[in-house]
Fold this protein.
Amino acid sequence: MKNKALVVSGNAPSLTEIDYARLPLEYDVFRVNLFHFEEKYFLGKKITAAFVLTHHILENYYTLKNLIQNQEYVIDNIIAHTFGLPNHDCPHFMQNASFFPDVIMGHDFFKHIKEFEIYMKYNFLYNYAVATSGIYACAIGVAMGYREIYIAGIDFYTQGDFTYGFDIKQKNFLTIAPHFALNKPVFETWHSTDTDLKVLDFLAKTYNVNFYALCPKSPLAKSIPLAPITHNTYIPEEKPKNYTKDMLLPPKKAYQTYGIKPSSADSYFVTESRSSNMILNIMRDLFFLPKAFKQEYKRKMQKREAKKFQKGLGL
């Protein structure tokens, strides 16, 4: 990998403003999360690695497999966004990863960048700081040996936490992630511009990596150099009218087999095994009961507001 460039792309608005004249002439591509919602093939159909968040792995994996089968994208590898941390990774996925034998655990690459693993886990534990998906993908690229990394579509959420380069408010996706309809995060955010920039700086200095920005208007271009002009003539290909621009929902039987309820992100985080001691189980259930009521009420309110939002969109 050392002699080949890598393009890592997030899905922020600057994704639509790539300066293609700066794109390397030969490169691999990493894409993250909801990339298939894009209206054009902003970085082509060939993807070296697609990164997925594990709390919606059942839908993510099903969607990616259908994208490959329908020849919408060519995806060489699927990498799970894992850190090897019990407080970060989706426990249900970690316990049932055998359902997805071709999904690579992202944290398995950390053995090649041990200094970064120490840095990352220290900041998670003491500063409650975690890099965003795109910056995480950059770290995995470094672990794989890339030393020239070009970045697009990472804007540090300067236009809002749920601002993308395409419309994400689609029916199926809002079903499994109703908080996106409200522009309110479900979980307390760990991300910040400062955290992401410090990670890039650490990777650059520790592993002698050159990072370049491909989007001149992106906030990232103020912190790392713009990519040099290569006179690349790539033009984004238009997608067909019937392209997959939503998350695909698997059959209900798949949820039963995987051990969660359909359309329930909360169920991915039910992890602790029950004690054989009935008294301990009762005491633990009583202790967590108020929190459970609060979470259930919040989830129902989010779903109710999301349904109103979907109805207003005619979905």
